[in-house]
Design a protein that fits this description.
Pfam families: UPF0102 (PF02021). The chain is α+β, with helices and mostly antiparallel strands. The protein contains 2 helices and 5 strands, in the order H-E-E-E-H-E-E.
Length: about 120
């Protein structure tokens, strides 16, 4: 169930970025260190995106799950990606997508936090 929720949130987030004029470069970029949910580009900026989807507030706000340890991992993954793709003359940022999903009503709300850390 958790995987389904996360997958749905990532799908909604990709659609959100495409509608805003971003180019999706990678989804679920994975190395032995971990995974970046979405890597997108807008103009000369590469955006590394962590998507957090919640159905309830039981465990707090979705963005609170992107703690310091998770941020450090994402930064290391981004550094690997930048070196692997030999990206030069680009700007980089880390965004968090909070997706609050009410499955019963089939409604969702997206909070896009730019430059989250």
């Amino acid at each position: 169930m958790k995987k389904k929720t996360g997958h749905y949130g990532e799908q909604l987030s990709r659609k959100y970025f495409i509608n805003k004029g971003y180019l999706i470069l990678n989804s679920n970029y994975r190395t032995r260190l971990g995974e970046i949910d979405i890597i997108a580009q807008k103009d000369d900026t590469i955006i590394f995106v962590e998507v957090k989807t919640r159905k309830t507030m039981t465990f707090g706000l979705a963005r609170e799950a992107v703690n310091y340890k998770k941020q450090v991992t994402l930064i290391k993954l981004a550094e690997q990606y930048i070196q692997y793709k030999k990206l030069k003359n680009m700007n980089f940022r880390f965004d968090v997508m909070e997706v609050q999903w009410n499955e019963n009503k089939n409604q969702y709300e997206i909070n896009h936090i730019e430059n989250a850390f």
